[in-house]
Amino acid sequence: AGNVSKCSVTPDQVRALTENIQALNAAAFETDHALQKELIFLHLPGKKPLGIPLISPSSSCLLCGCQLQLRKDRHAPIVIYDAKYGTIPGAHFHKFCPKRTCSFTQYYGYYSTQNQIIFNSDWSSLPFFISSRD
Fold it and tell me: Which of 18, 51, 108, 115 would you call most buried, defined as having the most Cβ atoms within 10 angstroms of its Cβ?
């Protein structure tokens, strides 16, 4: 007999790796929008779907140059209006400068510092525009 190696993965590890696999309806693969909608509204027990996450592509503070930190534990629920698809839920996340003496916060398409809101120079190149803030 040849060399047969024993499987290094236990059944419990396989179960842990596959417990979040979801079955998608075949119709979800007909268009990009159908797939996006299916993934957005995919219901996980006890949790509300976040919708489309809006996160600024900026990675460094415009004031001091430090690497921005993503605030994962807090988001603002938003509604995205699309002429073709109607309303879509979204989640607006922000990034902050970790330097204690810096008051810079980066949002999707704009930033704030010292209680002023300023739009990024590239805001019009982003796929979405946030028009108001609560």
Answer: 108
